Amino acid sequence: MRKWIMPGLLTVCCLFAVMLMFYSLRKGETPSVPHEQAPSATASGEAAPAVGAEAATAVYKSNCLSCHGDQLQGAMGPALTKVGSTLSEDDIRKQITNGGGGMPAFKGTLTDEQVNAVASWLAAKK
């Protein structure tokens, strides 16, 4: 019986998030997930900087906070305070994109830029 508690809670949390998204779409609002614009060239012809920590934090707050906590301390999901010391940026990117181990996949929910920003931000947490 106990082995079903965490997956059950995760399912309820995900269903709640999906219901909120559909509710906001029914009202004609857009979901709170910020979509970043592609980097544009500056006047000197150089590419503008990629999505930064501020955008990564916004994506985290909109999509990850409910399971991983407001201070990365973990809740339903594992703590991420030092995730960069155990997982590479590429591993974190794959986990966000494909999910697994109780985590939902965010492929199709987040843009590549958003996934890359969050993965880079979390990889620096050592």
From TrEMBL:
Keywords (A to Z) from UniProt: Electron transport, Heme, Iron, Metal-binding, Transport
The organism's place on the tree of life at top rank: Bacteria
InterPro entries: Cyt_c-like_dom (IPR009056), Cyt_c-like_dom_sf (IPR036909), Cyt_c_BACSU-c550-type (IPR012218), Cyt_C_IC (IPR008168), Cytochrome_c550/c551-like (IPR051811)
Pfam families: Cytochrome_CBB3
GO molecular function, one term: electron transfer activity
Residues that, per the record, bind heme c: 64, 67-68, 103
Cleaved signal peptide residues: none
Presence of keyword Membrane: no
PTM statement from Swiss-Prot or TrEMBL: Binds 1 heme c group covalently per subunit.
Cytochrome c domain boundaries: 51-126
GO annotation, cellular component aspect: membrane
The protein's name in its UniProt record: Cytochrome c
Organism: Cohnella nanjingensis
